[in-house]
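seq/struct pair 1
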Amino acid sequence: MSNQTTDNHMHPGFFARMRAFIRGEISAETIESYRTAGGVAYSFFIEAEKKRTDLADGGTSPWTMSAGDRAYFTAVWIGFSLQTLGDAFIKADYDLDPDTVGFVPRITAEQVDLFYSHVADFLAFAAAAADNKDYVLPGHLPFDLPEFVEADPCPLAHLVAMLAAGRVMVEHAGIAVSDALRATKDRPAESAALRSRIAALQSTHDSAQALHRDGFVPTPEMHMRIESQIKSVIQEAFLIGQLVVQPNLLSGTAYNHHTVPQASSGNPFDNIFTHGKRLPRPGKPGFDLFCLTSPSHISQFRRDPKAGPAMEFLWTHDPNPDETLTIQESILAAANRGDISDRQNGKTACYSCCPWGAIYLVVRPVNLAGHLMRPGQEFVFDVSAEETERGGPFRRELLIGRFSSTTKTDYCTGGEGDD
């Protein structure tokens, strides 16, 4: 778990720079800075493993530890895992291509940046939770592993990196599960589920490691097989490390930090209960066709004769409305907490496309639908069935960017004259 670097990583010579230029590689100076700064993740993790072991020795299980401890262990695990992955990708590239140490392929830089970009935030969450037994992580759990950047073919260095990081993550996920099982006396079903998942993970991991031979370049077919297995291993280890200290996730109950709204102050969000209770689902009493619409604009669209049919089209074609509404609940909860705001310069705005969701500005770091949102970002929850009539996918995603004014209203039913 070392993140030591040597001076020549940061100061490559003339020939290294020339070789990197010829190969299309870019300077690793920025990601090296992230690598060095994030090294504190290992110190956090060593302390966290000791604390968790001490709690287990005293009979404190994930079910009986404080909310603050659960938040602390979760945040440390996420930060540690992401730092481990980023470091492994850099090390593998340097080891396999020592002539261009200090430079990496663009795809490697992109992948490493996806991992490193969340580390500091989760370490900040861990620091906040360390001495606060009531602390809860903002947003939705489990936090999704940042995506693997697709490359065809996948560089050998990436495969080696994933095998190295997977080895570390599986080992420590196993230790966490052992601590949890040792301290848990009255949860036979959950304990059995943890045993089953970690056993399956370790078996798949061992298979992937056995297929790879150090010093040999695998055939393309074998490379793809190992790559598929080790990616699954990393994703599952990343998840288990969260499940084992957030046991409500093990039973399938979504984690969302929420605050009960106070008495109405004129803010449209004050009259929307977000988490704790769920938004009514389609077909259930109280379901509102316009529950995804900006609260400040609902009345406008209720009066629009085209809007109701457009919303019915959307919900009829949504293959998983529960997932859609779970994301919406987490967004409304974040708005209630003040983590995000639909008001900029005293004005509110909604997206031009059905369901006309609110355009939000991120005020504080918050985890929404697996995205760690940063202050200053703008986003809207983009939900659309427009492509389904042509055999395309249903769209359900956070659309992040800068939004400009328009007079256009899009009903997104896929028909002509839709606007």
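seq/struct pair 2
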Amino acid sequence: MSSRPDFSADPEAPWTSAPLSPACRLLRWGLGAAALLVAVAGGAAIGTWVVAPYLAAPGASPAPSRGLHRSSASSVQPGPTEEPELTARLLARNVTLGNGTLSWYSHQGIAGVHLSPGLTYDEHRQELVVAKAGHYQVCLHLELSHVLPTSRDSGKVSLALHLEPPQAEATAHPLAVDLSPYSSLPVQGSRCQPLQMADLQRLSVHLSVYLPTGGSKHQAWQLAQPATQPATKLELFRLSADVPDRRLST
């Protein structure tokens, strides 16, 4: 018997399709899945095309939002480091090592000597006078030459800063060096310290010699002279013009 429908019985009756075979159902499912994949891929491409103009290029900085201020560390340039200003450099006149206040070369024509406006040297009192108050750095440099290398004398030499009006901080750290016998090498030492100075502050340097024999002068050693080698010198650097409310004194 044939399984085909009989259209001659009732031509106007609705036609009922035959059930789909497994092969047809598999084909219809494959076509639907392919259409879904095409739709998803197309949507992703459209999204990328729409969003791409708003994404920053690699290495570029995003544009700042309206109304917001953006600061960058690279846009803030640190200021130059301020170097201390040399205001005075005096060279020692003394040659012989002996206890007492040092005398200084202060004339501008001498190589190495420097005095800025507002600073003067009182030759009678052997004092450097600072007219303007402020924060300064004072440096002492001691240079000694061994003129008798065969001498067995030893000892110690020191430089101490004195201020008028006095300050306790000025004498707390004297500069001292040891003298060794049988040495032909020069001896040197340096010390710097910050000080707050008042108007018309006066500075002087006291030389002290300590000998095992108890003498007050050392014949085997002398202060180095600027004509032959670095000399003993007093230097003053201006750090700032800030002055505390109180006056510094002992």
